[in-house]
Amino acid sequence: MEFTSLIMANPDQKTILIDQAYKEIKEICKKFQKDSGSSDKEVKNLLRELASLWGIEEEKNKFGFQ
Questions:
Q1: What's the pTM value of the predicted model, to 2 decimals?
Q2: Could you tell me where the DSSP H helices lie in 1-66?
Q3: Which residues, 6 or more positions from 40, have their beta carbon under 8 angstroms from its beta carbon?
Q4: Residue range 25-45: average pLDDT?
């Protein structure tokens, strides 16, 4: 699966979608952590691995991942 950039008439719409996705991912991670008993570090490592699938080094840095 490959993602392409979104071109929207309203730049605020993109910001809203990014914020919504962030909230949804955060909830998914919380549920995963609760259900699996994973540590914060394990969840962060999983997110790093997922981000690396798209080569998004700058995004990882943006959210404080090392």
A1: 0.61
A2: 11-36, 40-52, 57-62
A3: 33
A4: 95
